[in-house]
């Protein structure tokens, strides 16, 4: 049998053995560990104490590893004593190591090296990525350098790991406009940039598109305002700023943040229903959009139950909590957003050209960071989103129907909009989702628009509404 080595760098991965697909590999590691560290039933502290890099065999001879009878979260048989094979590498008869390196000390984010994402991955390789995705929330592939077609091909294959999931059309100003007759890649890939893709010219700060994109600098969950929110976001750094100039993307673990709450706090938040509304989040920065009639407010649980545990589901699109007084619910959302985005829960990704980052929107929030001289330096991130195959509220019909009936609300995933916040309340929410970081300071630029400009726009729109009423 042709054998290579899959190196899992476990120096700071305290939760890896809990995932079924990966846990099944541990019995094969006994010969590699000191006698004082038995593998069977081992705890995370064993790996942390020894600081080991686990060496796992990978079949490269084209044969499928024998199933152990246990199935992973994706429904694929988990191998016993062997792990994922790579078809492409097996056909070439080469031995190439695949390394999985933790990016934080709190089990959030891993860097994956060695997978050829531009090639078609087999089911076992995709199942391994699914396990890592669900366990660590953020996967980083340095310098993957995928073309548009390769990105969409990989995204489709990855989406197939999740029942009912499919690629989401990147419609709307925040992801670029969809033109009639445009190719599928144009419809599925959003270009988040500070310049016009046609002319190449950097957009001025009073450009309407940049005002709408300013929200990318605030902590958010992609498409949480939709009935079928984005399960995963795949981001590619096409045009990146020079190293040390800013422009990073930050991810905060809402699962680690939830686990940091007391049991009483967790119990209080579980089963609360929140409403995500794009009209509300645009209203925070004084923007509006004509397409909002196609996006009615969506109902979601404030606490999501995922294969790896519970997580908080808020961010800038979260408008209010049903069954609570409006101001009290919004105060709670602000508190949650501030809690989730503490430094101790954050991984900051510094982009290199061609990087691919995949994030699990069910268990993290993210935002873009400012960079120096944005009126001179371009930045573009391509974005493909995988929509969930279900709405968790609609899927939990029995208990939700009872909750909604008690609150005298209509059943289903579509909710009623609440009033837009007044100026002071809007500013408080903006601060809770990182508004201050949009401001220029110490010569640094800002991501898209100055806070002062947006504040003036916001005030002007409110004045117009008052005159019209």
Automatic annotation (TrEMBL):
Q: Where is the composition biased (Low complexity)?
A: 70-79
Where do the segments described as Disordered lie? 66-86
Q: Which residues form the TauD/TfdA-like domain?
A: 100-371
Tell me which Gene3D superfamilies the record gives: Clavaminate synthase-like (3.60.130.10)
What InterPro entries is this protein classified in? TauD-like_sf, TauD/TfdA-like, TfdA_dioxygenase
What would you give as a GO molecular function for this chain, any one? Answer: dioxygenase activity
Q: Which UniProt keywords apply?
A: Dioxygenase, Iron, Metal-binding, Oxidoreductase
State the family named in the UniProt similarity comment for this chain: Belongs to the TfdA dioxygenase family.
This chain belongs to the protein called TfdA protein
């Amino acid at each position: 049998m042709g054998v290579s080595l899959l190196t899992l760098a476990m120096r700071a991965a305290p939760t890896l053995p809990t995932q079924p697909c990966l846990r099944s590999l541990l019995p094969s590691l006994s010969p590699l560990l000191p006698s004082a560290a038995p593998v069977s039933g081992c705890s995370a502290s064993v790996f942390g104490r020894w600081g080991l890099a686990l060496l796992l065999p990978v079949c490269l001879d084209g044969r499928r590893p024998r199933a152990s009878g246990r199935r992973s979260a994706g429904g694929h048989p988990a191998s016993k004593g062997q792990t994922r094979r790579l078809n492409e590498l097996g056909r070439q008869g080469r031995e190439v190591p695949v390394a999985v390196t933790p990016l934080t000390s709190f089990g959030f984010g891993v860097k994956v090296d060695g997978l050829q994402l531009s090639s078609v991955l087999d089911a076992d390789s995709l199942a391994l990525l699914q396990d890592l995705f669900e366990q660590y929330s953020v996967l980083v592939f340095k310098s993957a350098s995928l073309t548009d077609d390769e990105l969409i091909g990989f995204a489709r294959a990855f989406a197939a790991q999740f029942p009912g999931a499919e690629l989401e059309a990147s419609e709307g100003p925040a992801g670029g406009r969809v033109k009639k007759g445009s190719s599928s890649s144009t419809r599925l890939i959003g270009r988040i940039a500070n310049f016009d893709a046609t002319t190449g010219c950097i957009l001025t700060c009073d450009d309407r598109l940049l005002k709408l994109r300013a929200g990318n600098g605030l902590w958010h969950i992609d498409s949480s305002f939709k009935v079928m929110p984005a399960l995963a976001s795949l981001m590619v750094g096409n045009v990146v700023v020079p190293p040390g100039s800013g422009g990073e993307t930050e991810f905060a673990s809402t699962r680690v943040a939830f686990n940091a709450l007391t049991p009483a706090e967790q119990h209080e938040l579980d089963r609360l229903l929140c409403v995500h509304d794009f009209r509300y989040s645009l209203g925070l920065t004084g923007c509006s959009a004509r397409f909002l009639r196609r996006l009615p407010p969506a109902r979601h649980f404030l606490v999501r139950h995922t294969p790896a545990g519970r997580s908080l589901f808020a961010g800038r699109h979260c408008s209010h909590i049903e069954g609570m007084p409006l101001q009290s619910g919004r105060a709670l959302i602000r508190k949650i957003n501030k809690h989730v985005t503490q430094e101790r829960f954050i991984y900051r990704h510094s982009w290199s050209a061609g990087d691919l980052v995949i994030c699990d929107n069910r268990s993290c929030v993210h935002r873009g960071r400012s960079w120096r001289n944005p009126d001179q330096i371009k930045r573009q991130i391509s974005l493909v989103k995988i929509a969930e195959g279900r709405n968790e509220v609609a899927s939990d019909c029995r208990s939700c129907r009872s909750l909604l009936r008690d609150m005298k609300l209509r059943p289903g995933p579509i909710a009623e909009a609440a009033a837009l916040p007044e100026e002071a309340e809007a500013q408080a929410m903006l601060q809770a989702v990182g508004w201050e970081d949009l401001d220029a300071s110490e010569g640094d630029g800002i991501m898209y628009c100055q806070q002062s400009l947006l504040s003036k726009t916001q005030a002007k729109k409110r004045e117009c509404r008052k005159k019209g009423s």
